[in-house]
Design a protein that fits this description.
By secondary structure, the chain is mostly beta strands. The protein is built from 1 helix and 7 strands.
Length: 91
């Protein structure tokens, strides 16, 4: 069962005809009863140690997913407090 969704930004850079092109796409973190998923990874809930958030400016911040595989950071434009609260209720 899906408990929470958190959008995050993925920035990619590409060189074409001697010009750097930067693109941003929106992806989503999904919190389920037994796992956390994103576009590239899937973690069981037992692999997740903690979640934290640091606001860097008025426009964005970093959401940190602390796991047994390391800390994964995601650029977010909205507060992930609902996502973190939902995780704490599950844990």
């Amino acid at each position: 069962m899906l408990h929470a969704i958190q959008p995050y930004i993925v920035t990619s850079r590409k060189i074409e005809w001697e010009q750097q092109k930067i693109s941003q796409t929106e992806e989503y973190l999904h919190l389920y009863q037994d796992k956390v998923t994103c576009a590239s990874y899937e973690f069981t809930i037992t692999e997740v140690h903690d979640m934290s958030y640091r606001l860097l400016s008025a426009n964005y911040g970093f959401f940190y997913l602390h796991t047994i595989r390391g800390v994964f950071s995601y650029i977010v434009t909205t507060s992930p407090s609902h996502f973190i609260d939902a995780y704490k209720q599950i844990k």
